[in-house]
Write a structure and sequence with these properties.
One of its GO terms (molecular function) is ligase activity. The chain contains three helices and ten strands; from the N terminus they run βββαβαββαββββ. The longest helix is centred in the middle third of the chain and has 16 residues. With 191 residues, the chain is of the alpha+beta class. A four-stranded antiparallel sheet has the order 4-3-9-10. Strands 7-6-5-8 form a four-stranded antiparallel sheet, covered by helices on one side. The protein has a two-stranded antiparallel ribbon with strand order 1-2. A hairpin with a 3-residue loop joins β9 and β10. The protein has one domain: Cyclic Phosphodiesterase, Chain: A, CATH 3.90.1140. Helix content is 21%, strand content 36%.
Length: 191
């Protein structure tokens, strides 16, 4: 797939797949307002695209249909309780500004490791060099690094989603949704 740019040249669209946690609409609105206050409209992540990436794959030049089944199987196999998210730091790097947790969140790390292990079992390699570091990107910019405490953006993530991002078109398609719920363990017999 490709798209014509305003200048008439053709820019390739890349296909990116990632698992993510999405903030509820009310929190997404609050987060979007934080991004608007701090960075204006310039390179801001759209409110409907706000997410916390849990695992990401390399980009593909054409749509890899062969990935659909193994990626869905990984999502189906996830067994994790809902995850409490508390993003109480705004951190600017040289290239972006993001919300991050001020404390380590063991449940997020466990969920990431479970997804990563599932991908590897399915023979699907995560993006080379990807290092899981929980964050929610607000906008992109060139600037000086900084860290600030903020009133926390808190919610409980109750589902994991698989996103197909059409890079270059700024479009996200949700390919799968899986509830996060505590594993009840084995059913014990009363008799």
């Amino acid at each position: 797939m490709s798209v014509a740019s305003p200048a008439g040249s053709v820019d390739p669209v890349r296909h990116r797949f990632f698992y993510a946690l999405l903030p509820p609409v009310v929190q997404a609105y609050r987060i979007d307002q934080e991004a608007l206050r701090r960075g204006g409209d310039h390179h801001r992540v759209r409110m409907e695209h706000l997410h916390m990436t849990m695992a990401i794959l390399d980009d593909h030049a054409s749509y890899p249909e062969w990935l659909e089944q193994p990626l869905a199987a990984v999502g189906e196999a996830i067994r994790a309780a809902p995850v409490a998210i508390d993003l109480d730091r705004v951190v600017g790097s040289n290239r972006s500004v993001a919300l991050r947790p001020g404390k380590r969140n063991r449940a997020l790390g466990d969920l990431h490791r479970q997804i990563d292990a599932g991908l590897r079992r399915a023979g699907v390699m995560p993006r080379e060099g990807y290092d899981f570091s929980p964050h929610l990107t607000l906008f992109y910019r060139i600037g000086t690094p900084f860290t600030e405490a903020v009133e926390g953006y808190r919610w409980v993530a109750r589902e994991l989603v698989l996103v197909h991002s059409l890079v270059g078109l700024t479009r996200h398609r949700i390919l799968g949704r899986w509830p996060l719920r505590a594993d009840p363990g084995p059913q014990l017999s009363l008799f």
